[in-house]
């Protein structure tokens, strides 16, 4: 993100227009706010993957939820589904050019989580302890 991008984002925040219904920032949040979207997008940063590989890499996602997530990401132009005419059939998923533009923000979010995750857990635990008292 450039300095100009930061200035523009700050102006949008000041104007209160960042999360209006027709704002691109709101659209972006809606796309990636799903619990599994960022996980699946991150799993695809290493290149094309089969459905079973994505289940294994995503840690805890059911096949049904993965299929729904992939369809939603495809519908937003972030993931491509490639069907190969083989026996048995082979299907691979990969990031589209548009999906690849999310790699850097996802890495930044992942780094934030690594840096601050423990503090968030500590806060949750202390908040839980306070609510019990």
UniProtKB/TrEMBL annotation:
Residues 23-121 form the HTH hxlR-type domain. PROSITE patterns: HTH_HXLR. Signal peptide: none annotated. Keywords: DNA-binding, Transcription, Transcription regulation. GO terms for molecular function: DNA binding. InterPro entries: HTH_HxlR (IPR002577), WH-like_DNA-bd_sf (IPR036388), WH_DNA-bd_sf (IPR036390). This is HxlR family transcriptional regulator.
């Amino acid at each position: 993100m450039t300095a100009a991008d930061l200035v523009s984002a700050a102006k949008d925040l000041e104007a209160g227009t960042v999360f209006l219904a027709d704002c691109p920032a709101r659209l972006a949040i809606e796309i990636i706010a799903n619990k599994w979207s960022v996980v699946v997008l991150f799993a695809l940063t290493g290149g094309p993957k089969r459905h079973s590989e994505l289940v294994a890499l995503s840690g805890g996602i059911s096949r049904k939820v993965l299929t729904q997530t992939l369809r939603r990401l495809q519908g937003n132009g972030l993931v491509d589904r490639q069907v190969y005419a083989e026996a048995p059939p082979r299907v691979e998923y990969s990031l589209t050019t548009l999906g690849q533009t999310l790699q850097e923000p996802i890495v930044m979010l992942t780094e934030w989580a690594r840096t601050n995750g423990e503090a968030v857990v500590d806060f949750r635990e202390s908040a839980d302890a306070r609510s019990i008292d």
